[in-house]
Amino acid sequence: MTATSTAASAHEHDDEPIWFPPKETLDELKKDFVSGQALSDLPPELPISQIIEHPELFQPRELDERHIHELRRAIRVEGVLDAVTVIQVGDKAILIDGHHRRASYKLANVTKPVPVQYFQGSLEEAVLEAGKANSKTKLPMITSERQNYAWRLVLLGTYSKKQVCDASGISDGQVAIMRRAEKALGEEAYNFDDWRRARDAFNKREREPLDDEQMEQWLESQANDYADRMSREFGKKLPQNTTIAARALDIYFGRRLPELVIALQEYLPEIEDDEEADF
C-alpha cells in the first residue's frame, strides 16, 4: 500500500477524503478518458478556446512573462508557432505542453486555429510527459521548480522513484527524502505544494512568521540588493533613458506590468500646487 493510500485510508472513518487539487483533476479526467482512442480523425489544428488548461496537473513551473512576450513577437512575424501537445479526453483537448505558446497566442489575439499534436498514452503518462517536455525546452525548469514538480508526483502516489526522477530531473536520493517526508507528514503533506515548506515541516524546522518590523526590514534589504545589482549592471543608463527603461519593464513584467504600476504609486512624489499650475 502506498503512502498516499495509507493517508487516504485514515479518512475512511470520517468520510472526509484528502483534498489535493492535482489528484482531484486527474480523477475527474479519468472519468472521460478512453484508452486506445483513435487519433487519426482528430483535427491537426484547434482554436485556442478549445485547448483546455489544467496547470495544477500539467504545468510544472510558473510562466515566464518575457518568454511569452518573445513568442508573441514571433507570432507576428511567423504567424504560428510549433504545435502544442494535447491529450484527448472525451470531447476535450487537454494541454500537456505548450502553456507559454497558448498564453502568447491569447496575448496576440489569435483567433484562427493553431497546430496541435496528440499525446498517445495514459493520463498518468501524460503528467510525466509534461515534466519531461519542460526539461527539454529552451527555458528549462530551475531547481526549485523541478523539486516542486517531483513533490507533486510523489503526492499523487502513482509513480515509481525512477519515473519521478526521469520526469523531474532530480536525483533518486531527493525523491527518497520526499517519499519519507510524505509518509511522515501523512495528511499534512497535502497542505504543501511547495517542497521547501514541506521539507521544513518534515525536519520540524518551520519558520516563525516575521512581524511587521522584521518584514519591512527584509523588504528594504531585498530592494536595496536589487537596486545595487541594477546599478552595477546599468550604471546611469536606465535613469537617463526612461523610455527604454519603460519598454524593458514592459517586456520583463509582461501581463503583470499593471501590478507594478499600481505598486509604484506609493513611491511617486506629490506634485505641489504651484507645479501643477505650470501645466
Automatic annotation (TrEMBL):
The residue ranges of the ParB-like N-terminal domain are 44-135
Q: Region entry Disordered: which residue ranges?
A: 1-20
Q: What SMART domains does this protein's entry cite?
A: ParB
Specify the superkingdom: Bacteria
InterPro entries for this protein:
ParB/Sulfiredoxin_sf, ParB_N
TM segment ranges: none
What is any Pfam family matched here? ParB_N
This protein is called what?
Nuclease
